[in-house]
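Structure (tokenized):
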């Protein structure tokens, strides 16, 4: 036998009566004649003039609130504080970040909607202040839902993370001309290309040049302490460790100049340990590489000539080179 709260529905004219559900019919009885030891009190339900239960308009509001993130996702997505990425891996990392953030917003919005709905729908009303809500011990579908859904979400996020991480750590074949050695030191950077090097200390901010649309292999190490190789527009950071070689690949998708810095506290002038990355077209990169190699060869030849002149001036005998043979 189930009992409605006092004055429930249009069945009872006297507000002090209660509705009794006997299983076969609904009856009104005075409140003082009900044996509550055999009953379970239920909160009153809204009914129309015919006695039918009406739906609360708040349910539509909750449904619309839960669907709002999906509707708004059709608009232009926000960066959520991250950089879109100037490389292939940087863009993949950015899209992963967007997916994580949108998922968090959707789940957080649904959770907040349920909290607000439960707070408003089941709040104590003045005319039901003495009513005892229906007591439910288990709700199996709900328990399965809030157990299975988070597990599915974790597996989906994990799968996308593995895909992006494998892309970031992949080492595809790269031409020798596109291999750049990077050595960090207190407090500057040295970039080594085939045939020449570019070095700079503190505020000089040396520049690493790389081609657009081609894989570039970076061989990173440190000459002294732990440094951090970070390019914010690439969404990339990696440790530069003494005695350890870290290798990774960039594939720049746009030309321009991007700024990098050391992200590990490495000494007094850590805050000045900057560098630049300049991305140019593949054609311009080839021309720049050839000009730098020619310039480096000219400087090396000039230095060798000066060394010979110094030795001749000092009277130091020099053994001529006859093509590498021995005599």
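Design, position by position:
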């Amino acid at each position: 036998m189930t009992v409605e709260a006092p004055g429930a529905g249009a069945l009872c004219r006297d507000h002090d009566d209660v509705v009794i559900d006997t299983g076969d019919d609904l009856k009104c009885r005075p409140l003082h004649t009900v044996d509550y030891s055999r009953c379970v009190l239920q909160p009153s339900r809204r009914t129309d003039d015919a006695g039918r239960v009406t739906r609360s308009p708040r349910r539509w509001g909750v449904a619309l609130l839960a669907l709002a993130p999906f509707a708004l996702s059709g608009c232009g997505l926000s960066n959520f504080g991250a950089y879109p990425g100037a490389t292939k891996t940087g863009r993949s990392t950015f899209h992963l970040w967007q997916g994580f953030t949108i998922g968090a917003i959707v789940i957080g919005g649904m959770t907040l909607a349920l909290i607000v709905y439960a707070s408003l729908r089941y709040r104590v009303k003045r005319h039901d202040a003495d009513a005892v809500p229906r007591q439910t011990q288990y709700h199996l579908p709900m328990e399965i839902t809030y157990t299975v859904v988070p597990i599915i979400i974790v597996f989906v996020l994990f799968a996308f993370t593995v895909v992006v991480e494998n892309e970031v750590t992949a080492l595809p074949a790269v031409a020798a001309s596109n291999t750049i050695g990077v050595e960090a030191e207190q407090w500057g950077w040295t970039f080594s290309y085939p045939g020449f090097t570019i070095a700079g200390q503190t505020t000089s901010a040396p520049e690493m040049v790389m081609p657009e649309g081609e894989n570039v292999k970076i061989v990173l190490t440190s000459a002294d302490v732990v440094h951090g190789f970070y390019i914010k527009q690439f969404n990339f950071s990696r440790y530069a460790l003494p005695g350890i070689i870290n290798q990774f690949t960039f594939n720049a998708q746009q030309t321009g100049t991007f700024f990098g810095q050391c992200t590990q506290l490495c000494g007094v002038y850590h805050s000045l340990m900057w560098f630049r990355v300049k991305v140019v077209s593949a054609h311009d990169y080839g021309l720049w590489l050839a000009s730098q190699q020619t310039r480096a060869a000219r400087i090396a030849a000039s230095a060798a000539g000066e060394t010979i002149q110094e030795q001749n001036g000092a009277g130091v005998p020099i053994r001529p080179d006859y093509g590498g043979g021995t005599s």
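Reviewer-requested clarification: The longest strand covers residues 179-185. The radius of gyration is 37 Å.
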